[in-house]
Design a protein that fits this description.
single chain; globular; mainly alpha; two-stranded antiparallel sheet
């Protein structure tokens, strides 16, 4: 078996996981030329190790198709709208990637985000007085739920969960006046608390994740109805800060500063790491491929920044320019998530548990704590997603987090290349998959296709992605026999 077919786990005795989390050109090509590395990559693709390649090719095909069919697809306004359109579901999908990596599923992420959004909106509408908005009975139950989440997180030794749950209790009990930053923090606290409860039931009690999260999907949907009421709506667009989260843009200077930080940081980390590994005689990609990848991504980011800093307002009286705020939000989550999975012991343990749970347990990994923690991450990301999509529509209603929110979020992760069987995937997969779904919805909308067509096409894209995943795993297994 070739060395590049395995990913090492930090603890001895843990079964290796096929499908490296950093699958790319020639992962152990210290002695390979560029041509040999490309040939090696093609061999791995043919053997079933395809990663997010199908999603990237599909995204390119969709962009070309819609640019031909619609004259406005590549307009500046539509490009900016496209970036913000799928940001909410993409952020939820980033959290779901962690759950899928250990072979579990979180069906409650959508309505959990709806609960977080409803609490955020109620705190704003009621000027911080949740007791008045909820009523005494519901308010006491809400506080008790947060305290229960803190207790369960303490039993699991997930200390960030304890802290965030107790912080939510403090914010709700003190009754701070309406403040968008406090409300966004409260929403994340609620999301984290929900994840602590979900993780405890699945990891500690041993209940199937499908059953638990399906039950909680229904339960949280009822909570949203209780908080908002049938036919009710909490408007938040009157808050400038909350409205700007998904609808505002960085200044021109801020946009270029983001480019310098993001592109420069990526180039520095990639090239610096490559040089360091070569000096130490460690395995690394061929230098021409590393440089080509950095140049390509930097050039793409520069082109997008140039386009978005052009005034795209149809009126001469108003200027609309700059990179949307959701871009740095998604980039931050992408960078943090990628670092956690690829550069930390915790991330390596996630891949180990997803590859072989029993072997990981025997190697000394606290599987119970780790399984619970990924649901905390999932629900916390769902809360951040709730902030973004609530800002986008300017309100929170009883359907928040329901309907297609969860399906699109799970679909984004799977379409991007994350396996439903565990052990294979990256945070970047959620971003790529989210881009595919956003392009589908945006392009069909520009072509004035009805919602039925959008749902059918989206379902077929998801079905195709699941089929490719199953076939690639089968081919990979056959190759190794």
């Amino acid at each position: 078996m070739k060395k590049h077919d395995l990913t090492k786990v930090s603890d001895p005795g843990v079964a290796t996981v096929s499908s490296s989390p950093t699958a790319d050109f020639g992962i152990d090509t210290t002695t390979m030329s560029t041509r040999e590395a490309v040939r090696d990559y093609v061999i791995r693709v043919r053997s079933g190790d395809i990663g997010s390649l199908p999603a990237i090719l599909g995204l390119i095909a969709l962009v070309v198709l819609f640019s031909i069919l619609s004259d406005v697809f590549f307009s500046l306004n539509n490009i900016a709208n496209l970036l913000a359109q799928g940001a909410g579901q993409t952020i939820i999908a980033i959290g779901i990637v962690y759950v899928l990596l250990i072979g579990e599923i979180d069906l409650s992420a959508g309505t959990a985000s709806g609960v977080a959004g409803a609490i955020l909106a109620m705190h704003y509408v009621e000027n911080g007085n949740l007791l008045s908005g909820m009523g005494s009975t519901v308010f006491v139950a809400f506080i008790a739920l947060l305290l229960l989440a803190a207790l369960l997180a303490a039993l699991l030794r997930i200390w960030p969960g304890v802290f965030m749950s107790l912080l939510g209790v403090a914010i709700a009990a003190v009754g701070f006046e309406a403040n968008p930053w406090v409300e966004m923090l409260l929403a994340v606290c609620v999301g984290t608390a929900i994840g602590c409860i979900t993780g405890f039931l699945i990891a500690k009690i041993g209940m199937p994740s499908f059953v638990v999260t399906l039950a909680l999907f229904l339960a949280w949907q009822g909570v949203i109805l209780q908080l908002i009421g049938e036919g009710g709506v909490f408007g938040i667009s009157s808050s400038h800060v909350l409205d700007q989260v998904a609808n505002g843009n960085l200044s021109t200077v801020g946009s270029w500063l983001l480019f310098v930080v993001a592109a420069g940081g990526y180039a520095g980390v990639t090239l610096g790491g490559h040089v360091l590994r070569r000096r130490r005689g460690l395995v690394t990609q061929p230098t021409p491929l590393v440089v080509a990848k950095v140049v390509a991504l930097t050039g793409f980011a520069a082109v997008v920044t140039i386009l978005l800093t052009v005034n795209r307002s149809p009126s001469d009286l108003i200027e609309i320019s700059g990179v949307p705020y959701v871009v740095p939000i998604v980039l931050a989550l992408l960078v943090i998530g990628t670092y956690v999975l690829n550069r930390t012991t915790y991330g390596r343990h996630i891949y180990a548990v997803g590859g072989n749970r029993e072997a990981a347990r025997r190697a000394g990994i606290d599987v119970t704590q780790l399984r619970a923690s990924v649901f905390v991450i999932s629900s916390s990301c769902a809360a951040i997603g709730a902030i973004v999509y609530s800002s986008k529509v300017g309100s929170v209603d009883p359907q928040a987090g329901g309907l297609n929110t969860l399906l699109f979020a799970v679909g984004a992760a799977v379409i991007g290349g994350t396996s439903l069987f565990g052990g294979k995937g990256r945070v970047a997969d959620a971003v790529v998959g989210g881009a595919v779904l956003a392009v589908v919805a945006n392009g069909l909308g520009l072509l004035r296709q009805p919602a039925a067509v959008v749902s059918i096409v989206t379902g077929l894209v998801l079905l195709l992605a699941a089929t490719v995943d199953a076939l690639s795993r089968r081919r990979n297994a056959a190759t190794r026999q």
